[in-house]
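Quick one, C-alpha cells below:
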C-alpha cells in the first residue's frame, strides 16, 4: 500500500519506465524519469507545454527509444521493440483517420491487416461501432462526421485490437468545451467497461481531475507529483503543483516582516527559528467578512479588480504590504457585501485550507 500515491493501489505494475532519459539536441525532454503504470488504471500525464508528456507516450508506444534507462510492459523489456510488436495502441491528437475509408473500414483496418476472417471482422466492427455509439454512421466518410463522432471513430479504431494499453494524446483538444465534458464522461465509462489501462496526455487540469484514477504532474522532464486527483489537489507537494492545478495564492512569511496577516490560532513554528515559510491558499478557500471559529488568519484588503465568472466572482485583493491575493467567491456567499473596486474588506481562511509547503505546523500567536 502506498498511501501517498493512492487510487488503484493494489494493482500490479503493467508499464514501467525505469530511470529513462531522452534528449533532442540540446533539449532534455526527460531526465532520470521513472514511472509505474498500474494494470487497469486511468493515468493522466499532466503538465505545461514542453514538459515531456508526449515524449513519455512515445517511449511507451515505441516511436522513440530512450538514451538511457528502460521501458517494460508486463515485465518484458520493450525498450528496443518496434511499435507494431508492442501491445499498445494510440489515439493521436489529430485522430489520423484514413480520409478515403468509411467509418466501418477505418475501424476494421487493424483486423484486416491481421487477415482476420471477414465474418469475424464484421461482427467485431459492428460491436465496436455499437460501443462507441456510431452504429448508424458505419458507411460515412470521416469528412461527413462531427468532431465528437470523429473522436469516437479514432477510439473505436484504437480499441478494436483490444490492446493491453491505450494511449491517448490530447484526445479531446479538438472539441468544444461542452463536447469535451461529455466525452470526458464517455472515456471514463468506456475505461470502466473495458477494464483496460488508459494513459492520457493533457495540459487541461480540469480534464485530468475529471477522468483519472491517478495523475502524474510533470515539470521540465520530471515528475513533480503523482497521486489521485484528490491528493494532487488537496495536498500539492510543492508550489509548481499547487499553482498548475487549481491556482494558488502564495504567502511568504518571515519573522522580520510585517506581512499584514493576523494569525488567529498560531503561525508556522518555522517563524520561531527566524526562517521564511511559504503558505498557500486556494482562491476558492478565501472567505469574506468576520473570521469564524477555526480561522487560521485574517487580513484587511482593498479590492483592486472584480471579474464576473457566472456562478462565482473573482476578486483581486491588495494588502497594505502590496501583496495581492486572488479570491473566487461563490455569488451566494457574497450576499449584500459591496464588491466594487477600492472597497475595503476583511478576508480569512480556515486552518484546514492553508497549505503549508514546509509541513511545519503552527505554534505561537499574533500578527505577522
Ligand atoms: P506539448 O503539451 O506542447 O505537446 P509536451 O509536454 O508533450 O508538450 P514533448 O513533446 O514531450 O512535450 O517535448 C518535450 C521537449 O522536447 C520540448 O522542449 C520539445 O520541444 C522537445 N522535443 C520533443 N520532440 C522533439 C524532436 N523530435 N526534436 C527536437 N525537440 C523535441
Amino acid at each position: 500500500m502506498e498511501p501517498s500515491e493512492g487510487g488503484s493501489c493494489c494493482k500490479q505494475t503493467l508499464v514501467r519506465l525505469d530511470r529513462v532519459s531522452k534528449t533532442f539536441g540540446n533539449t532534455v525532454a526527460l531526465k532520470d524519469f521513472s514511472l509505474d503504470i498500474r494494470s487497469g488504471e486511468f493515468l493522466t500525464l499532466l503538465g505545461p507545454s514542453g514538459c515531456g508528456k508526449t515524449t513519455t507516450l512515445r517511449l511507451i508506444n515505441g516511436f522513440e527509444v530512450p538514451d538511457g534507462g528502460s521501458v517494460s510492459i508486463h515485465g518484458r523489456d520493450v525498450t528496443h521493440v518496434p511499435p507494431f510488436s508492442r501491445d499498445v495502441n494510440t489515439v493521436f491528437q489529430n485522430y489520423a483517420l484514413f480520409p478515403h475509408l468509411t467509418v466501418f473500414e477505418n475501424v476494421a483496418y487493424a483486423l484486416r491487416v491481421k487477415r482476420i476472417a471477414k465474418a469475424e471482422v464484421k461482427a467485431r466492427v459492428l460491436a465496436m461501432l455499437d460501443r462507441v455509439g456510431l452504429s448508424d454512421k458505419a458507411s460515412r466518410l470521416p469528412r461527413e462526421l462531427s468532431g465528437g463522432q470523429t473522436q469516437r471513430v479514432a477510439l473505436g479504431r484504437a480499441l478494436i485490437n483490444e490492446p493491453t494499453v491505450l494511449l491517448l494524446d490530447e484526445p479531446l483538444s479538438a472539441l468544444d468545451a461542452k463536447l469535451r465534458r461529455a466525452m470526458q464522461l464517455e472515456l471514463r465509462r468506456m475505461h470502466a467497461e473495458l477494464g483496460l489501462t488508459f494513459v492520457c496526455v493533457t495540459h487541461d487540469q480540469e480534464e485530468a481531475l475529471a477522468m483519472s484514477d491517478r495523475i502524474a504532474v510533470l515539470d521540465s522532464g520530471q515528475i513533480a507529483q503523482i497521486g489521485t486527483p484528490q491528493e494532487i489537489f488537496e495536498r500539492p507537494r510543492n508550489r509548481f503543483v499547487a499553482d498548475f492545478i487549481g491556482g494558488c495564492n502564495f504567502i511568504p512569511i518571515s519573522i522580520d516582516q510585517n506581512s499584514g496577516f493576523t494569525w488567529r490560532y498560531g503561525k508556522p513554528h518555522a517563524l520561531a527559528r527566524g526562517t521564511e515559510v511559504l503558505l498557500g491558499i486556494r482562491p476558492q478557500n478565501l472567505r469574506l467578512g468576520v473570521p469564524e471559529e477555526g480561522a487560521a488568519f485574517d487580513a484587511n484588503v482593498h479590492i483592486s479588480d472584480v471579474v464576473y465568472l457566472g456562478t462565482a466572482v473573482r476578486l483581486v485583493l491588495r494588502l497594505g504590504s502590496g501583496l495581492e491575493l486572488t479570491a473566487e467567491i461563490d455569488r451566494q456567499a457574497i450576499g449584500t457585501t459591496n464588491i466594487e473596486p477600492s472597497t475595503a474588506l476583511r478576508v480569512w481562511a480556515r486552518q484546514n485550507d492553508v497549505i503549508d509547503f514546509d509541513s511545519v505546523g503552527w505554534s505561537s500567536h499574533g500578527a505577522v
